[in-house]
Amino acid sequence: MTAATSSVSAPTVAVKQKQTEVLRITGAIIFLLSGIYHVDWWRLVQDPIVVPLSMYTEGAKLTVAYLTALLAWRIDPMSCWDETDFKALRIIYSLIAVADTCFIAQQPDAGILVFMIVQGLFIKRHLSGMTSISELTAQSPLVILVFGISAVLCAANATFFWYPRTGGFNDLFIILSIYFCLKCTSLTATYAACLIGKFPLWNAQMTAVGMTMFFICDHTVTGNLLLSQDPTTTDAPFYVVTSSLTWMFYGPALLLLSLSGYHPDILLVLAPNHQIDASSATKKKE
């Protein structure tokens, strides 16, 4: 009787411990994001408008990137929905931390190159195990719609903004064009994977919303560069808005995508009214 009780209660304790850990890290990330949003948007009500980002927000944003990487690294065989998936997320989030460090260190070219690898790994994560793209698009017109919208946005961004800004058809423009192609493919692959049921429902929703916000975030960066950072110009308020919007999308994207690697039973800590099935959370994929 005692042995039987231990075999049932042990997984429950392990699940609750992991849920507590996830909740604490998630809470810390949300706390930091709330501070970032407050300081970023507070610039609008200053007289004159304060355009440069504060040292707090720069440090807090990098800390969020590191904490989401920690969240990804804390996924293990007992708390994942798929062992291959959580290993992929560990690599992806390690690279995201490196890329964000490059941007904070004023090395945007290196950051873009690392993010290209990140997008390629997201594509691999979402397309692995699929049969053919034509079969997937036939099953859901939404995949074609997502591809069409993302392709138009990326093409317009590259043609009307980055081409003249980079001085024409050169190495930087080629790199950015490749990145736009990767972004478009990555978003399409995300919706294809979610629609065919590759992910559990909660994980699919987190992945789809997270990758969509990631995609939008990249386009707000273009808006930042279109506008003047000079606080004496009429562009200053709009620059503050677009630069603030970047992390309004990017921060939640990082959080959602890192959480998407956890088993749904672990994620139930974010919705405490649901019933917890401890046994399924300890299941390993063969």
TrEMBL record:
Keyword vocabulary terms for this entry: Membrane, Transmembrane, Transmembrane helix
The name this protein goes by in its record: Inherit from bactNOG: Membrane
Native source organism of the sequence: Seminavis robusta
Native organism taxonomy: Eukaryota, Sar, Stramenopiles, Ochrophyta, Bacillariophyta
Transmembrane parts of this sequence: 22-39, 59-76, 142-162, 174-196, 208-226, 238-257
UniProt keyword Transmembrane helix, yes or no: yes
Coiled coil residues, start to end: none
Superkingdom of the organism of origin: Eukaryota
